[in-house]
Write a structure and sequence with these properties.
203 residues; two-stranded antiparallel ribbon; single chain; 4-stranded antiparallel β-sheet; alpha+beta; Nuclear Transport Factor 2, Chain: A
């Protein structure tokens, strides 16, 4: 009788140990699964996948502060390209200027209105003149906000008989705004002005 009870007690103790071992093992597996899932999430969170021309490209996400110089220069370049790349077609001029004005404040619109009043765009159309711009360099001061910039570019006025090259120098300031389809870099050019726009001889 006592032997039978002792065997039951021993079996009960063994069952308790087995249950405790199963619980500890399950807890360990759960903690390990949570940990490795978190690590995998962190790795995946730092990556962005972009679909371009039917191909999936991987891009690494980074703090915007690391990309400010690149994005700021591209914003300035895009603005100047849209503002100064013109063809003798009223719709092309309006479309390009419209895109440029999303990237700058009223100072750009004032320059546009000034050129319009001087019949600059009408002269391009009547003379069948195309205007192209190539940005040579951009200096950018990120030590103070809003960020000051100076843009050096070459402007070409192309006629059927000749091409005139001009040195174009502008300056202004950049401030942060919300990103949008019309302003993908999230900057706005302020106090923009033309410092120089004179004929030059290129080799």
């Amino acid at each position: 009788m006592f032997t039978h009870l002792k065997n039951i007690e021993t079996a009960f103790q063994q069952n308790k140990k087995i249950v405790a071992l199963v619980i500890l093992t399950s807890a360990f597996i759960s903690v390990a699964a949570i940990y490795f899932s978190f690590v995998a999430y962190q790795k995946a969170d730092g990556r962005v996948y972009v679909l371009a021309n039917g191909k999936v490209l991987e891009a690494v996400a980074a703090d915007r502060r690391e990309n400010i110089p690149v994005e700021a220069r591209d914003h300035i370049k895009m603005f100047h390209y849209d503002f100064f790349t013109l063809d003798p077609d009223e719709k092309v001029i309006e479309a390009n200027i419209s895109k440029a004005l999303y990237l700058a404040d009223g100072s750009a619109r004032n320059q546009y209105n000034d050129l319009k009043e001087k019949s600059y765009y009408n002269n391009l159309i009547s003379g069948n003149i195309s205007q192209q711009i190539s940005v040579d360099s951009i200096t950018l001061n990120l030590n103070s906000y809003p960020y000051y910039f100076k843009c050096f570019a070459t402007e070409k006025l192309i006629r059927s008989t000749s091409t005139i090259n001009k040195l174009l120098v502008t300056q202004g300031y950049l401030r942060n705004v919300s990103r949008s389809d019309n302003n993908p870099h999230g900057f706005l050019i302020e106090r923009w002005e033309t410092i120089a726009n004179r004929d030059t001889i290129l080799p």
